[in-house]
Design brief:
This protein is 0% helix and 49% strand. The protein is mostly beta strands and 167 residues long. The chain contains no helices and 16 strands.
Length: 167
Protein backbone atom coordinates (compact mmCIF):
# COMPACT_ATOMS: atom_id res chain seq x y z
CA UNK A 1 0.00 0.00 0.00
CA UNK A 2 1.32 3.41 -0.95
CA UNK A 3 -0.04 6.15 1.30
CA UNK A 4 0.49 9.81 0.48
CA UNK A 5 -0.45 12.58 2.90
CA UNK A 6 0.60 16.06 4.00
CA UNK A 7 3.50 14.72 6.04
CA UNK A 8 5.23 12.95 3.13
CA UNK A 9 4.36 15.37 0.30
CA UNK A 10 3.88 19.09 -0.30
CA UNK A 11 3.09 21.54 -3.07
CA UNK A 12 6.82 22.15 -3.49
CA UNK A 13 7.66 18.43 -3.35
CA UNK A 14 4.75 16.23 -4.44
CA UNK A 15 5.07 12.46 -4.17
CA UNK A 16 6.06 11.16 -7.61
CA UNK A 17 4.56 7.81 -8.58
CA UNK A 18 5.79 5.70 -11.47
CA UNK A 19 3.89 3.12 -13.53
CA UNK A 20 3.96 -0.42 -12.18
CA UNK A 21 2.20 -2.71 -9.71
CA UNK A 22 0.95 -1.43 -6.38
CA UNK A 23 0.05 -4.22 -3.96
CA UNK A 24 -2.87 -3.11 -1.72
CA UNK A 25 -3.41 -0.05 -3.92
CA UNK A 26 -2.75 3.68 -3.64
CA UNK A 27 -4.27 5.88 -0.93
CA UNK A 28 -3.94 9.67 -1.20
CA UNK A 29 -5.01 11.07 2.16
CA UNK A 30 -6.11 14.61 3.07
CA UNK A 31 -3.62 17.31 2.07
CA UNK A 32 -1.54 14.88 0.02
CA UNK A 33 0.18 15.98 -3.18
CA UNK A 34 0.80 13.37 -5.88
CA UNK A 35 2.02 13.38 -9.46
CA UNK A 36 1.56 10.24 -11.56
CA UNK A 37 4.10 9.85 -14.37
CA UNK A 38 2.62 8.58 -17.64
CA UNK A 39 2.00 4.87 -17.95
CA UNK A 40 -0.19 2.08 -16.57
CA UNK A 41 -0.70 1.57 -12.82
CA UNK A 42 -1.79 -1.92 -11.77
CA UNK A 43 -3.59 -1.99 -8.42
CA UNK A 44 -3.77 -5.36 -6.69
CA UNK A 45 -5.34 -6.27 -3.37
CA UNK A 46 -6.13 -8.95 -0.89
CA UNK A 47 -9.34 -9.09 1.08
CA UNK A 48 -10.63 -5.51 1.64
CA UNK A 49 -7.61 -3.35 0.84
CA UNK A 50 -6.78 -2.13 -2.62
CA UNK A 51 -7.82 0.13 -5.44
CA UNK A 52 -7.29 3.86 -5.68
CA UNK A 53 -8.55 6.23 -3.01
CA UNK A 54 -8.27 10.02 -3.30
CA UNK A 55 -9.44 11.96 -0.23
CA UNK A 56 -10.26 15.56 0.69
CA UNK A 57 -7.80 18.43 0.32
CA UNK A 58 -5.59 16.68 -2.21
CA UNK A 59 -3.71 17.83 -5.28
CA UNK A 60 -3.34 15.02 -7.83
CA UNK A 61 -2.09 15.23 -11.42
CA UNK A 62 -1.35 12.69 -14.11
CA UNK A 63 -1.12 13.03 -17.89
CA UNK A 64 -1.15 9.84 -19.95
CA UNK A 65 -2.14 7.57 -17.07
CA UNK A 66 -4.29 4.46 -16.91
CA UNK A 67 -5.32 2.64 -13.74
CA UNK A 68 -5.92 -1.12 -13.98
CA UNK A 69 -7.70 -2.11 -10.80
CA UNK A 70 -7.04 -5.84 -10.83
CA UNK A 71 -8.44 -6.45 -7.35
CA UNK A 72 -9.85 -8.84 -6.37
CA UNK A 73 -11.08 -6.20 -3.90
CA UNK A 74 -11.09 -2.42 -3.64
CA UNK A 75 -12.57 0.15 -5.98
CA UNK A 76 -11.67 3.56 -7.34
CA UNK A 77 -12.96 6.16 -4.91
CA UNK A 78 -12.94 9.92 -4.73
CA UNK A 79 -13.80 10.67 -1.10
CA UNK A 80 -15.39 14.04 -0.32
CA UNK A 81 -13.55 15.53 -3.27
CA UNK A 82 -15.62 18.73 -3.03
CA UNK A 83 -12.98 19.75 -0.52
CA UNK A 84 -10.00 19.24 -2.81
CA UNK A 85 -7.64 22.19 -2.51
CA UNK A 86 -5.36 22.04 -5.53
CA UNK A 87 -7.65 19.78 -7.50
CA UNK A 88 -7.45 16.50 -9.35
CA UNK A 89 -6.49 16.38 -13.03
CA UNK A 90 -6.08 12.95 -14.64
CA UNK A 91 -5.84 12.32 -18.39
CA UNK A 92 -5.94 8.89 -20.03
CA UNK A 93 -3.19 7.71 -22.35
CA UNK A 94 -3.28 8.70 -26.01
CA UNK A 95 -0.79 8.60 -28.85
CA UNK A 96 0.83 11.90 -27.82
CA UNK A 97 1.10 11.61 -24.03
CA UNK A 98 2.20 8.01 -23.39
CA UNK A 99 4.69 6.44 -25.79
CA UNK A 100 4.89 3.19 -23.78
CA UNK A 101 1.12 2.62 -23.47
CA UNK A 102 -0.25 0.06 -25.90
CA UNK A 103 -3.12 0.72 -28.28
CA UNK A 104 -5.57 -1.08 -25.96
CA UNK A 105 -5.05 1.65 -23.32
CA UNK A 106 -5.74 4.62 -25.59
CA UNK A 107 -8.52 6.63 -23.92
CA UNK A 108 -8.88 4.34 -20.87
CA UNK A 109 -8.47 6.13 -17.54
CA UNK A 110 -9.96 3.52 -15.15
CA UNK A 111 -10.30 -0.18 -15.94
CA UNK A 112 -11.59 -2.39 -13.15
CA UNK A 113 -11.11 -6.11 -13.75
CA UNK A 114 -14.42 -7.96 -14.26
CA UNK A 115 -13.46 -10.16 -11.28
CA UNK A 116 -13.55 -7.13 -8.95
CA UNK A 117 -17.11 -6.07 -8.09
CA UNK A 118 -16.12 -3.40 -5.51
CA UNK A 119 -18.27 -0.26 -5.65
CA UNK A 120 -16.58 2.91 -6.91
CA UNK A 121 -17.17 6.67 -6.79
CA UNK A 122 -15.69 8.64 -9.71
CA UNK A 123 -15.98 12.43 -10.02
CA UNK A 124 -15.10 14.73 -12.91
CA UNK A 125 -16.60 18.09 -12.05
CA UNK A 126 -15.61 21.72 -11.59
CA UNK A 127 -17.95 21.75 -8.59
CA UNK A 128 -15.69 19.18 -6.93
CA UNK A 129 -12.44 20.61 -8.35
CA UNK A 130 -11.72 17.53 -10.45
CA UNK A 131 -11.00 17.19 -14.15
CA UNK A 132 -10.93 13.74 -15.71
CA UNK A 133 -10.33 12.81 -19.33
CA UNK A 134 -10.94 9.21 -20.31
CA UNK A 135 -13.20 6.19 -20.13
CA UNK A 136 -14.21 4.52 -16.86
CA UNK A 137 -14.79 0.76 -17.23
CA UNK A 138 -16.34 -1.15 -14.31
CA UNK A 139 -18.21 -4.06 -15.97
CA UNK A 140 -19.24 -5.93 -12.80
CA UNK A 141 -19.36 -3.08 -10.29
CA UNK A 142 -21.81 -0.43 -9.18
CA UNK A 143 -20.48 3.07 -9.66
CA UNK A 144 -21.56 6.50 -8.49
CA UNK A 145 -20.48 8.88 -11.23
CA UNK A 146 -20.57 12.69 -11.23
CA UNK A 147 -19.47 14.72 -14.22
CA UNK A 148 -19.95 18.06 -15.93
CA UNK A 149 -18.35 20.15 -18.65
CA UNK A 150 -14.83 19.67 -17.23
CA UNK A 151 -14.91 16.08 -18.50
CA UNK A 152 -13.56 16.44 -22.06
CA UNK A 153 -13.95 12.86 -23.18
CA UNK A 154 -15.83 10.35 -21.19
CA UNK A 155 -17.85 7.23 -21.28
CA UNK A 156 -18.66 4.84 -18.50
CA UNK A 157 -19.35 1.13 -18.54
CA UNK A 158 -20.59 -0.42 -15.29
CA UNK A 159 -22.98 -2.97 -13.86
CA UNK A 160 -25.07 -0.03 -12.65
CA UNK A 161 -24.49 3.74 -12.66
CA UNK A 162 -25.87 6.25 -10.17
CA UNK A 163 -25.39 9.81 -11.37
CA UNK A 164 -24.25 12.28 -8.68
CA UNK A 165 -23.54 11.89 -4.99
CA UNK A 166 -25.49 10.39 -2.17
CA UNK A 167 -23.63 11.69 0.90
Amino acid sequence: LVTINGSNSSAAAPAILNPGSYCAGINIQPFGYATFNSGIYTLTSSKGAGGLSIDAGTTVTGNGVGFYNYGPAGGVNFLFSSLTAGGITLTAPNSSNCAVCGAAWQGILFYQDPGDSATSVVVGSASWNTKLTGTSYFPNANITYALDATVNYNSVVAKSVTMGFQY
